[in-house]
Amino acid sequence: MKKGLIVLTLAMIAMAPAAKAADGFLVLRASTPLIVSGAVGLRLGAHAGDLRPTAQAEAGIGGGKLAFGWDNTGEGRTGYGLKVAFLQTWFEPVDVDEDQSFVGLEIEFSVRKLIANLGGYRRVSSGDDDWLASAGLGFVF
Question: CA geometry: angle at 104 spanning 130 and 101, to 5°?
Fold first, then answer.
């Protein structure tokens, strides 16, 4: 836990110079296992339509996730992103037990403002579900 906080702090310090040229975004989506969710994110660096470092937090009925990676979704005609994510389930998630933690990879694709995501996660807490697949469809603003 302590090592994770140190790595996160160092990553945030390294990204600080790029924060001057940052764009925020909002995503509303229906997905599994989160059901219905909203995400807020920040893309760092100058806008050029290229992949940019991205941090994103999402919360929904079935759980929430924090993701970090590279992204340009919703910025032009088409876009994509690749992120490492931590997912925590709560209440009544789809096809998985509540109160479980997962770490995995997620890929996103967008056409204009329509966004789709696919992810694969491995459980890192105690529970019955070792692997989790995630998929969603929504809009980026």
Answer: 55
